[in-house]
Amino acid sequence: MVARSFLSASLLACLALGAVGCGAAEPEDEALGVVDDAEDALTMVWPVVRSGQVNQDVTTVQYLLKAAGFTVSLDGSYGAGTETAVKSFQRARGLVADGIVGTSTWAKLIATVSSGSRGGAVEAVQYLLKNRYAKALSVTGTFDTNTVTQVKSFQQSRCLTADGVVGSLTWNALVGRTTNCGGGGTSGSSSSPSTPAASGGPASRILSAHRAGTVTLWNQTFGRYDGADPLNNITDAASGRPAKRSCYGSAPCGSVYLQSGMLNAVAALRERYGYRFFVTTIAGGSHSSGSYHYSGRAIDVDEVNGQRIYGNSTVADQFLSACRSLGAVEAFGPRNDPNGHWDHLHCAW
Length: 349
Description:
By secondary structure, this protein is an alpha+beta fold.
């Protein structure tokens, strides 16, 4: 979340919470262990969930903790009780007990569920399908016929094998909003989760808009020519390659496939809403720990319709509103985050 005029981002303030007791209940009926292809889950991109957050990812973690036998509130708020349960789960699974749900913890939390399964993992699947993807079903904890139907429908929409079994690929699509339908998204066939999606799609359209001068993709990373700039990121995505991340400050190095949800939304900002804008960062740059940029799901913009972003403005508010209409889970700017986004806009999917 950096602007064109800065070399690095300020770290987000961490919310310090005191630990409270969290009793572990007996595992539920038919509560399952981790997925049998958990190693595959380690190759995927997962959201980072940590103390202080309030969102659907937190609720999903809470349901999965319930499936593992922990007593937590299913309120979507990552408070002291959830943090205590996560740390206990991490210790029990041989992980670093830092209370941060990242790739390794997700790989241990998710459980393969299918027709006839019961418990918190099924509730997590039903919760996501109902609340994130507007599927017509109730959160009952029983993997019934309707749940099978809705899972298959979701799998088809993500170009996954529509077998009704929620394994690592389907979990990743549900939680990480990944797809196997092309346009530079993450995931692959059920047998090869690290296979890149097909080239072309929205990334190619964004690149065409750049060539036409309606969307400007910066060709540097705040003074660095490290190949992690927006122009290189989109060029790589249009060719079906992972986009490079930066390797300075808090940046994690390496690369990541840009998510199709983000690419489709960026293309729509131009094609559907008619905005002309300057993209300063996508996967590159140095951002706060756990930033959506590092998982290929966010853009920063510091100019819209020829206006540089400096403080509150109508065009900034309208652009962020368009991001939200396109499904953004983060939309920050001068009005709602003046300390971190006074001079640029940040949208993440």
